[in-house]
Amino acid sequence: MRCFGGKLFLSRYGKVGSSQTFSSHDGIRLQSSSRSGNSHPFAFVFGVLLVIMIVFAFVTFAYGSYIVFNQPISNVVAVTLPQSSGGAILEFDGAGFQSNSVVQVWIDPVFDPSNSALMNPSASFYVGNVTTNSNGNVPLQNMTIQSAELANIAKDNFTIHYVVIMGVNQSAASAPYSDITYDVQANYSAATVIPASEGIVFFVTLFTVQVPISYTIGQLFLVLWVIFIILFAMALNGPSQSVIGALKKGYREGVSGIYSNSMFAVVSLFTIVLWGQDLLASLQAAGGIATGSLAASDPLLTFLSYAIAPIREELGFRVIPIGVAALVILWGRGRVKDGLMALWHPMRYLKKNDSPADYKRHQLLMYILIAISAALFGYAHVFFGGGWGIGKISEAAGAGVAFGVLYYQYGLPATILIHWAFDYEYGTYVFSSALYNASNYFILFTIPVAIATTAVLFIMLGQRLQRRNAAKSSMGTGNLQRI
Fold first, then answer.
1. pTM of the model
2. Residue 303's closest CA among 398, 426, 203?
3. Residue 456: other Cβ atoms inside 10 A
């Protein structure tokens, strides 16, 4: 995934002065010092900026996903063109190979179940050889498939037929298998079946659990998008105020009202972490610390990994250490239902069941766990390989802190959605060439939002310090009066 570093200013809860109290929403609670009748146009304009960014991001992410699956982006793109005289023409091209090398074209190759590097030629369908160019690409090719071969292909055990281009060394393995080089690319599509032996891998911090389930790429992608849409709708309407309600609250009470909605918190934090990552990467590069990048893979598979990463990584690195700790605390008191709900939103259900003293103690524990989970999250990017350099640890750990705070204060939808935004901000715009200009507009728009968010956070921090000083002064005056 593409992760970034950042920081979120936290809030305090309870009474302010003698007549004002914080609202009960489960978000950043920093009350503006407003009197009845006052309005806050800056807060309203800030909220409108966030609304524009929310709409732009969601529309372009959705359209980009459509483009990816409507216009094949796999390293091998192939189509069969039936011929009136019988047989068919296989039209294909490819990318991602060694340069100036001879590779073979196969249809429905059968591999050894215990060693995916071994292929059985007698059970597969050979089409022909091609030579890659100096860029490692296979230019558009046309090869003839005879009627008899088409009939045999139609009768094999593959429901969805696929083309694989690879280098093969037929003398390096015992019959009936041939040893395949690593130079292998296939034409993945929405119909490609992922076998149960590969399944879906989930994280439990630095451990992995594989769920043996078979599915097509299209099926998994559709399920993931349904989940994202549901979470998106929930974030637009909570945890305390809807987007519209938060705009009204912000206009009445100031910038604190904007953060009564989790989607506003997600978008504003996204911009800070995005540019914080760029700054950190530049500083590390100046010091000779490499961030690295993901190893080259098939574009469609990479895009699918971007789609599933926000869910499985937030479950494994946020819910497992932070939410489970909240669950154990509440189950220890016999609060079974609230303990389960704490997995969804830790702060809300701890605050609901805790005394002020207990909550303060548990809040400290939550922030310690946020720091630990962030460190594990950063280390995991190098631990699991994939091409990242040592510099990725600090970048991902910084993002982990921001994601953890967002999860604790706003719940699981918020942390999944900000993770989704980072992965899709990269994946959608890179793999959807039609959105090249849109990506530029999106990045440019994050600049004023990031500046405004920074100003808002400093304003809120200043208000917090003012209230703290006022409370100390009030306590001192009260003590003098009692002497």
1. 0.85
2. 426
3. 22
- Cβ atoms 67, 182 nearer than 8 A: no
Query: What residues have CB less than 8 Å from 66, skipping those under 6 apart?
Result: none
**What is the C-alpha separation between 279 and 273, in angstroms, rounded?**
10
Nearest alpha-carbon partner for 390 in 287, 256, 464, 236: 287
Q: Is the Cβ–Cβ distance between 271 and 278 less than 8 Å? A: no
Mean pLDDT, 10 residues at a time, over the chain (483 residues)?
A: 38 32 40 56 92 94 88 88 89 93 92 86 91 95 91 81 88 80 88 88 93 94 96 94 95 91 96 94 93 87 93 96 96 95 96 93 96 96 88 94 96 97 88 85 92 88 83 63 47
Both structure tokens of 396: 């991902």
* SS (HEC) of the chain: CCCCCCCCCCCCCCEECCCEECCCCCCCCCCCCCCCCCCCHHHHHHHHHHHHHHHHHHHHHHHHHHHHHHCCCCCEEEEEEECCCCCEEEEEEECCCCCCCEEEEEECCEEECCEEEEEEHHHCEEEEEEECCCCCCEEEEEEEECHHHHHHHHCCCCCCCCEEEEEEECCCCCCCCEEEEEEEEECCCCCCEECCCCCEEEEECCEEEEECCCEEHHHHHHHHHHHHHHHHHHHHCCECCCHHHHHHHHHHHCHHHHCCEHHHHHHHHHHHHHHHHHHHHHHHHHCCCCCECCCCCCHHHHHHHHHHHHHHHHHHHHHHHHHHHHHHHHHCCCCHHHHHHHCCCHHHHHHHHCCHHHHHHHHHHHHHHHHHHHHHHHHHHHHCCCCECCHHHHHHHHHHHHHHHHHHHHCHHHHHHHHHHHHHHHHHHHHCHHHHHHHHHHHHHHHHHHHHHHHHHHHHHHHHHHHHHHHHHHHHHHHHHHC
- Listed by start position, the domains of the chain span 15-69+200-478, 76-187
